[in-house]
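Retry 2 of 3 after timeout on previous attempt. Resubmitting structure tokens to design endpoint.
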């Protein structure tokens, strides 16, 4: 009989064998021992299966499941097979530190429904950026909607009953890349108590968006989530109307930053202009415009 609650770790993966071993090892090394892992393999064409089998650990289970490009479907499949009281999500290219589950379960036992901890954001060049999520007031529904996401999937552990209440991830193709943000919004709206651990307990790997389509896809998905939740609020007062305009402008601004990072300064300026037309009171927007013009001139 268990003295501590079981945590089910759901790891969706596709052709990430080179990262998956480290991700799984980071779970095996946890100081909190009551866990199971469900690897949801989207029929990878690399040696993913061999990597999983190499652990020879009965707590680690592998299921092959075709998600048709919708990672939410893979995560939902893992949730449906889970036996734990809590669900922890781990992307197959991320890792946890030894006390991640121990620290999160401590807070969850204080009647929280979702706990998120800090991470290092690690780029391909091995640069690290320290990120602390929260605070709790930022996870309130309107703040989460109007001020943006403040929860990371690989840093989140959620009470399964809370997930059941909102019927897990939304599998709509319109929300691919931001299905996690939509889930956090729905959990917050449902009354879930969300807390944060102000410690770095994992690493989130950032991959370069290798084409313009990825920037646009993410922008359209975020717009879909925001518009859907704003509609749920009904008629907005003056303050919320301005907050909604600012939020929509920031989506265009973020797309512009994506193009800027790809050295496509003309496209960046186009999306900065869209941002300005929606809400011209974002100070960093003007800095981004000046830098983009300067960089564009240098390229000529």
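Retry 2 succeeded. Sequence:
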């Amino acid at each position: 009989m268990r003295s501590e609650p079981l945590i089910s770790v759901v790891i969706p993966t596709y052709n990430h064998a080179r990262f998956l071993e480290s991700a799984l090892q980071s779970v095996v090394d946890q100081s909190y021992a009551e866990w199971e892992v469900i690897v949801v393999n989207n029929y990878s064409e690399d040696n993913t299966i061999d990597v999983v089998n190499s652990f020879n650990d009965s707590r680690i289970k592998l299921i092959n499941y075709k998600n048709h490009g919708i990672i939410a479907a893979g995560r939902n499949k893992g949730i449906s097979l889970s036996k734990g009281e809590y669900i922890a999500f781990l992307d197959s290219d991320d890792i946890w530190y030894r006390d991640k589950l121990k620290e999160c379960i401590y807070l969850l036992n204080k009647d929280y429904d979702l706990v998120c901890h800090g991470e290092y954001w690690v780029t391909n060049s091995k640069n690290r950026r320290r990120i602390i999520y929260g605070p709790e007031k930022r996870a309130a529904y309107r703040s989460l909607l109007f001020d943006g996401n403040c929860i990371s999937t690989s840093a989140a552990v959620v009470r399964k009953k809370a997930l059941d209440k909102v019927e897990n991830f939304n599998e709509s193709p319109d929300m691919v890349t931001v299905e996690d943000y939509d889930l956090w919004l729905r959990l917050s709206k449902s009354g879930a108590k969300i807390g944060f651990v102000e410690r770095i307990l994992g690493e989130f790997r950032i991959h370069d968006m290798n084409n313009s389509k990825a920037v646009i896809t993410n922008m359209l998905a975020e717009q879909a989530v925001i518009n859907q939740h704003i509609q749920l609020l009904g008629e907005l007062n003056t303050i919320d109307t301005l907050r909604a305009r600012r939020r929509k402008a920031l989506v265009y601004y973020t797309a512009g930053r994506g193009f800027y990072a790809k050295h496509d300064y003309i496209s960046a300026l186009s999306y900065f202009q869209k941002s300005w037309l929606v809400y011209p009171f974002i100070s960093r927007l003007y800095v981004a415009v000046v830098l983009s013009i300067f960089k564009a001139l240098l390229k000529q």
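Attempt log closed. The chain has a mean pLDDT of 95.
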